[in-house]
Design a protein that fits this description.
Length: 218
């Protein structure tokens, strides 16, 4: 897949300064975490208030962990979402996509090439990240970087984002090795757990936007 540039998602936005920084940096996607076990958790009302600060700009992504339809509806009753990012099996993701008529990105934890999805499962895309380390209390990358070389010759079945352990100082290497069409960062642009740094957000987005996939490919 030849892209003009790599897209970027900033996840776990939970403050006005973080929201404003993501919008001003012109990120492609802005993620709200509706999972209470996360230090980035926001309520539907909090997310709606943040989102109303700038109605346009980045697409709004709602992150949910093994949700029932009611949890998603509670958010949609307060604000529109463009995309649902779901931690759950393929059948749950398909059912939610069908019910809400919104693209679903299924999060897939990977530690070996054999775990990479080979068909699109009818979904809007995938978030590919490392498997949570043993003892982790929440899914997701948990600030651990994966072996990006696992992805270099993967024939991706559709759109996907690379997540897990990305930071301003390693994202160029990650993009070069993985050929990801999009990257997803949360803790890598924080000053402390759950506290986004506007400066790191700006730096991360700039690194991604200045990267040219076609000059770095073999």
């Amino acid at each position: 897949m030849i892209l003009d540039r790599t897209e970027v998602k900033i996840c776990g936005v939970n403050s006005t300064k973080a929201f404003d920084a993501v919008v001003e940096a012109s990120a492609d996607y802005l993620g709200f975490v509706f999972f209470e076990g996360s230090p980035r958790f926001v309520t539907p009302a909090q997310a709606a208030a943040l989102s109303a600060r700038h109605p346009g700009g980045p697409k709004r992504v709602g992150l949910f962990v093994a949700p029932d339809a009611g949890a998603i509806q509670a958010v949609l009753d307060k604000m529109p979402l463009d995309i649902l990012q779901i931690y759950g099996d393929a059948s749950l993701c398909q059912a939610l996509q069908s019910r809400f008529q919104l693209p679903v990105w299924r999060a897939v934890g990977v530690s070996a090439k054999t775990e990479l999805p080979l068909d699109g499962q009818g979904l809007g895309g995938f978030v590919i990240e490392p498997k949570p380390p043993a003892g982790a209390t929440r899914p997701g990358g948990n600030a651990v970087a994966m072996d990006w070389g696992l992805l270099s010759d993967w024939e991706a079945p559709g759109f996907w984002l690379l997540g897990g352990g990305l930071r301003p100082e390693n994202v160029v290497q990650a993009m070069s090795q993985s050929h990801a069409p999009a990257v997803d960062v949360s803790s890598g642009v924080e000053a402390a757990p759950g506290e986004k740094s506007p400066a790191l957000i700006r730096e991360f987005v700039a690194k991604v936007k200045n990267f040219s996939p076609n000059t770095h490919n073999h």
